[in-house]
Amino acid sequence: MRRLFLVLFTCCMLADATAQQTSFSRADTLRGTLTPARSWWDVTYYDLSVEVFPSEKSLRGSNTIHYRVLQPAKKMQIDLQQPLQIDSIIQNGTALAFQQEGNAWFVNLKAPQPKGKIMQLAVYYHGKPREAVRAPWDGGVVWGKDSLSRPWIATACQGLGASVWWPNKDHQTEEPDSMQISVTVPQGLINVSNGRLRSRSGNTFVWFVSNPINNYDIALNIGHYSNFTDQFKGEAGNLDLSYWVLDYNLARAKTHFEVVKPMMQCFEHWFGPYPFYADGYKLVETPHLGMEHQSAVAYGNQYKMGYRGKDLSGSGWGTKWDFIIIHESGHEWFGNNITTKDIADMWVHESFTNYSETIFTECVYGKKAAEQYVQGIRQNIQNDIPIIGPYGVNQEGSGDMYYKGSNMLHTIRQIIDNDEKFRQILRGLNKTFYHQTVTSRQVEQYISRQAGRNFSKVFDQYLRHRNIPRLELKQQGSVVKYRWLSDVPGFNMPVKVLANGKWRFINPSTDMQTLQLDDEKELQVDKNFYIKILRS
Fold first, then answer.
1. What's the whole-number mean pLDDT along residues 262-291?
2. Is 294 helix (H, G, I), strand (E, B) or coil?
């Protein structure tokens, strides 16, 4: 999900991203790579228990990590970001020695670690976690206040990592099969986390997640909440809908959140069944803009249409619906159901989810409106650096993964030229990679196989190069010469043109070809293809 891409924040973000491309540290590798101290074990279950102290902006807690031994080893890497401190690590009743290297903690194991066995150890910790400066982009813990000056607290940590507030194996390949989250808060406050509320005892709220979940989706949401519920009759049965909003926003939320049911109907039609029926769907009001926290989607758009009241497309369609509800909920399919193994491939999360906005617009307002929306968001594309970032160092590529990636998918849809086939591809992705972590190549190859066309060069150009393909057109009278100018050798993407009064496909390559027209009218190219046209 994911950090939302703020247009007004674009230049700063992209300047940072560009700078981060050139030099990486050992700390980056420890964070972004499956190191030897990580690769020998696989998390199966987390039992996280945290007490929150708002007046001190501090936490104290423990995480019992259940893991399967893939290969016997004696050293384990646990991640917990400074200034938080590990107090002790216990296995089989024995305290273990550990060494700290930045945000990585290396544990010296004493007990044998037999291959295939499920083991567990408990990590106890405390401290003042990093405070978010501008969540969700600059993440951490938000120690906020509501409009009545009461505590309102939330976590948002994608990219930065969940280890900013709790100890875990902080790598995107690693998802527990299930998880318990026990949170103790001061009197009068309510904590809402992922999954279903299993129990409440005094000020302690115990939530349980039945499905695999990525670390950065685990969330604290603490405030003076009121709750209301509903059900959606979906493809996989009755889906429980639960809404947690500040007590004084209850009435407006009941009206504003009515969009959820038609959104679910649209997304299930296009993407397949909601991936987490066992955990239900929640919207939770937060003191930050929003985040795709699985089964507890963070909402902070202040009950406005569009993105904080703005239309990111400039088409007029972007203020017909609440951007945060639609976008962050779309991540339940792309980002939460399907999660990338490396943050460098984050386009799989953001491009598809950005395109879910176009899909929703089409469901409600029709195909022409959807086309105007997706074409309109091109105004936000920078074409600065490649969308796919460097691997193994916890580094994203360009923020163009949102709008450019979405337009790449829209372009591929035009080439497939069969909306039902395209819809089945989107549904098939969510079925084939259900509750899995994937690579970009896996997704690319799946689309090519199902489409019956090799899109490898298309993906290479849009994802691995800065430029978009340029279609060179040289027209003299009724004769048009055309070819692709591309960074990818042998680039050969079809494109639809209006020739002799009819829309038809031509198949440009990097070699010049000729098209004979019946008249001298300028050759028109379908605007649904996100390309650059060079006329001469």
1. 98
2. coil
Cβ–Cβ contacts within 10 Å for residue 288, how many? 21
Q: Which two tokens stand for residue 34?
A: 């499956």
Distance of alpha carbon 296 from the chain centroid: 14
The number of residues making up the chain comes to 536
Of the candidates 37, 165, 172, the one whose C-alpha atom is nearest the C-alpha of residue 101 is 37
Q: Where are the alpha helices (DSSP H) in 347-418?
A: 347-365, 367-376, 403-416
The whole-angstrom distance between residue 62's C-alpha and the CA centroid of its chain comes to 27
| Interaxial angle between packed helices 456-464 and 403-416, expressed in degrees from 0 to 180 and rounded to the nearest 10 | 160
Give the helix/strand (H/E) hosting 42: strand 41-53
Burial state string for 367-376 with b = 16 or more CB within 10 A and e = fewer than 16: eebbbbbbbb
| Residue carrying structure tokens 């994802």 | 463
Contact 385, 338 (CB under 8 A): no
What is the pLDDT, as a whole number, of residue 11? 40
Helix (H, G, I), strand (E, B) or coil at 25: coil
CA distance 271 to 356: 9
pLDDT digit string (tens) for 319-360?
999 999 999 999 999 999 999 999 999 999 999 999 999 999
Asked whether the CA dihedral 23, 25, 28, 34 is positive or negative, the reply is positive
CA distance 368 to 366: 6
Distance between CA atoms of 408 and 459, rounded to whole angstroms? 8
Is residue 113 helix, strand or coil? coil
Q: What is the DSSP letter of 307?
A: B
**237 φ/ψ sector (left φ>0, alpha ψ -120 to 50, else beta):** left
